[in-house]
Amino acid sequence: MKRKIAIIISLLLCATVLSGCWSAKELNELAFVVAVGIDKTKDGKYVMIFQVVNPGNVVGARQNGGGSGGVPVSIYKATGDNLVEASRKASKKLSRLIYYAHTNLFVISEEVAKEGVNGLFDALERNSECRSTAMVVIARHHSAEEVLKILTPIDKIPANQIIKTLQFSEKIWGQSINVDIGTIINDLASPGKAPIISGVEIVGSVQKGKRQTNVQASEPDARLNINGLAMFKEDKLVGWISGETARGVVWILDKMEQTGVTVEKEDAAYKVVRAKTSVAAHMKKGKPSISIHIQAEGDIGEEFVSIDFTNPKQIFALEKKAEKSIKKEVVKAIEEAKKAKTDIFGFGDIVYRSYPQQWKTMKSDWHDRYFPQLEVNVTVEAFIRRTGLRTKSYLFGQ
């Protein structure tokens, strides 16, 4: 009898564990969404744009664009009072189930960002298929729909083109930041750190960029270009930082990997190969202050005036000029953020970690009162490690 009971219990356990693929989804029933755009209509409704992979035009095809097959992606859009409604409504236009597990990019229009993004990220976080590691960009000067419709020449899937461009631009040039959903949500929830998101724009003809001929020419009619950092205050876009000033933001956030700095008076091009930034908070007579220390190491990539690299004094002087150029970018970035009254650097979080009791009295007015008046001291150390094969350039004689 005991043996029979044991067998029955074992069978019940097996039935529980081996319950079959109850949640399985067949591949031919799924629409793989690689990117989602979010716009708004004139009457205030949300428009979701889905960049869906056309499997037959991608599988087995080369990923370098310009193939003779059909278009690698299709664009679908749906409108609703909120994102959930718009997503569900898209089922009227798609013969497959929308699948977000492979969505690695979200494009938010500038208009939507100015009105506020809190509701958007709440919906994305609650969606079990959405990855918190998916990148987010702001469509600058164009709608999210226009950005997602541009066909790209190197990567067949436009979403991949934007993602890879953003990654390499952050690593090599240092004027953009790769920001994901999880990071933005953390910033939105923090009273001492405001979100900052990279922008993407269209260069060229928007209409021609939608056609397949855009990827069949040596010079495309339209390209997607990473440009600027969008500054947010609470959940609303309040301004842009571009160029060398944007690089100042990257220096402060300790995200600088490599870049090229033209030293003061254009003496030489300084190639930064590694950098480290440390930020500390201090309290003086009840007032907070911040100290930033940047260490940069790099090589001489090009010289514009005659420099004798065998002379330590000239190298030291060049390092000092490089330090001054970097500090100028950092100070300018701080000034721009103070004008917008938004702490995109997370100085408030640093004050909170160092002085939690004092932070309680500053938290509610940090962005509007304390941050714009915050004393920030910047010090930079730049080291030249390599100067190249020549100690004296042939351009200026021997």
UniProtKB/TrEMBL annotation:
Matches recorded under PROSITE patterns: PROKAR_LIPOPROTEIN
Q: Where in the cell is it found?
A: Membrane
Q: Which GO terms describe its biological process?
A: spore germination
Tell me the ranges covered by the Spore germination GerAC-like C-terminal domain, including all copies: 227-388
Q: Which Pfam families match?
A: Spore_GerAC, Spore_GerAC_N
State the annotated membrane topology for this chain.
Answer: Lipid-anchor
* Chief location: membrane
What Gene Ontology terms describe where this protein resides (cellular component)? membrane
Every Spore germination protein N-terminal domain range: 24-201
Which keywords describe this protein according to UniProt? Germination, Lipoprotein, Membrane, Palmitate, Signal
Would I find Membrane among this entry's keywords?
yes
Task: Name the coiled-coil region(s).
Answer: none
- Which NCBIfam families does the UniProt record give? spore_ger_x_C (TIGR02887)
Which family does the UniProt entry place this protein in?
Belongs to the GerABKC lipoprotein family.
Name assigned to this protein: Spore germination protein KC
This protein's species is Parageobacillus toebii NBRC 107807
